[in-house]
Amino acid sequence: MAGHGEQMAGRPVVYLVGAGPGDPELLTLRAARLIAQADWLIHDALIEPAVLELAVRAKRIAAGKRAGRPSARQQEINRQMIVAARSGGVVVRLKGGDPLIFARAREEIDALVAAGIEPVIVPGITAAQAAYAALGEPMTERGDRRSVVLATPQVQQGAVADTEWARPVINAQGGALYMAASVVPRVRATLLALGLSAATPVAWVADASRAGQTAIRSRLGELRAPEGLPSGAPVILLVGLARTGAAPGVAVRVPPLSARQQAADDEQQAQRIERRAEHDA
Q1: Is the pLDDT of residue 199 over 80?
Q2: What confidence tens digit (pLDDT) does each residue in 51-77 have?
Q3: Which helix (H) or strand (E) holds 57?
Q4: In the sheet that 251-253 helps form, which strands lie side by side, from edge to edge?
Q5: Which of these is catalytic: 39, 59, 65, 280?
């Protein structure tokens, strides 16, 4: 494996780096180090500004894709990576979440290899992990939930919609669905038709791990497109949750883990000061 900023056997390197779900504190140490060392940073659209600010020396190239909006074509992204790698320096292709999960990594890896460039993968925390964490829900449970399903109902342009994505969700009695917000009627109808109960708890989680993360809980039979969320917020659908939580259909702000930890730390500090004051008195 190539070291940070090194070439591998004389070949240029491109680092495919996971930026995590949003909160800069959830970056891996290696990801943060590579971003800071980058001479070229080719990044997705939804990368948190605070993460981009770590790239203090890099030429930044926005290469993200957004549904329904003008976006860079994959071939152009591939070309940008190759041009940057051949120009020298540390090249980071920064992708939201984990670079290997619903991120078209195969196309980028194949393009780099064909161009004689070594792809080096730096994993990141994916949105599903942050979404489950936001709700305080384990992704697996002893004796109950023994598999983790990450799926998407989306198909590539020109392909016919199918139900193959849903079968693992049915078998596991739940999972995390990426890019589901634009096809809610099909998601609901498919899962119900394949036997998942209409009473199955579900939740939309938007901006997972970010300061404005929000959850909307309901039941599968009542599932509808998320409303009342910030425009353009990344959203993921969790199916088969153990708890129903807040009132169905109501968008509820969920403080991110870092904010909750800070609040807990502040509370402990206040208690220590209070005890010290009582002792001194």
Answers
A1: yes
A2: 999 999 999 999 976 555 556 789 999
A3: none
A4: 150-151, 175-178, 235-239, 201-206, 214-219, 251-253
A5: 65
Instruction: Return d(Cα 163, Cα 144) in angstroms, integer.
Output: 24
Catalytic residue among 23, 44, 98, 207: 44
Domains with residue ranges and CATH for the chain = 13-125 (3.40.1010.10), 128-257 (3.30.950.10)
The pLDDT score that the predictor gives to residue 192 is: 97
Alpha helices in 182-240 (DSSP H): 184-193
Any idea of the CA torsion for 22, 208, 152, 123, to the nearest 10 degrees? Answer: 40
Residue 202 backbone dihedrals phi, psi, to 5 degrees: -135, 165
- Cα separation, 42 vs 127, in Å, equals 20
d(CA 132, CA 150): 12
Nearest to 24 by CA among 4, 3, 53: 53
Is 95 considered catalytic here?
no
CB distance 32 to 53 below 8 Å: no
Cα(123)–Cα(23) distance, rounded to whole angstroms?
A: 15
- The predicted model gives 200-209 an average pLDDT of 95
Residue 248 reports pLDDT greater than 70: no
Does residue 44 carry a catalytic annotation?
A: yes
Of all residues in the chain, the percent with pLDDT exceeding 70 is 81
With contact defined as beta carbons under 8 Å apart, do 209 and 130 qualify? yes
pLDDT tens by residue, 164-185 = 999 999 999 999 999 999 999 9
Q: How many residues does the chain have?
A: 281
Question: In the chain, what percentage of residues exceed pLDDT 90?
Answer: 68
